[in-house]
Description:
Elements: H1 6-21, E1 26-28, E2 34-36, E3 51-52, E4 58-60, E5 68-71, E6 74-77, E7 83-91, E8 94-102, E9 108-115, H2 117-121, E10 131-137, H3 141-146, E11 161-164, E12 168-171, E13 196-203, E14 206-211, E15 214-223, E16 227-233, E17 238-247
Antiparallel strand pairs: 1-2, 3-17, 4-7, 5-6, 6-17, 7-16, 8-13, 8-17, 9-10, 9-16, 10-11, 12-15, 13-14, 14-15
Amino acid sequence: MIRVSLPFLLTLAAALVLATSGISAATEDDAGNAKAAPPRAMVDGTEPGFRDLGEADFKNVNGKPDTWSWDGNAVKCTGDPVSVTRSVKSFTNFELVCEWRHLRDAGNSGIFLWSPIESLDRLEGPGLPEGIEVQVLDLGYKAAYEKGGNKANWFTCHGDVFPVGASTMKPFAPMAPNKRRSFPTRETTRDTGEWNHYYIRAINGEVRLWVNGVEVSGGNQCSPATGHLCLESEGSPIDFRGLRIRELP
């Protein structure tokens, strides 16, 4: 008869839970007993149905020929001029994943969802379209903005979601003072030069954003709720990589 200690059984049970739940790490408490790591909502684009988005899937709208430089499902943006590259295809219900990193302190960029072709066709010079914007700000943007004596109470650097132009959305709380932006519930954005992960779910006029595995912001009753994806160039170099999309019914 083999005697097995209770701590060993607890450790084995924890390992089995992790194996069946897809969590790959465990930690120990102060007494040395195994405990499961907390679950994370980290859709990374390796799930069935996702496909890469690359140069053939996008069209430069109002940037320079060298504003966007593609390499597979990664793209480098110079930030000059203020402009966008849009998806060739229009989307309605989908999930989008990507990573991004600002290369300069106080950088500004964004990802537009459901931009109508009419607003894109009007962009002959520098400018941005309508649609629902998922903000991509460097952590240094707030400090740079407040240097001029302005109060940065109407935006955050951690994943705001908001409508642009004539587009509309009912934002999730917490909200900006003007009630147009959904502010993040958690501050999870990483600093200049570090990669950040976005998972965006856009279904039936509702947008939800996860930043580095944590759901933080979004809104519903979006109008329009179909249109083009756009990557934003707004004055500062930025890299995107791992762009993948899963279209939904």
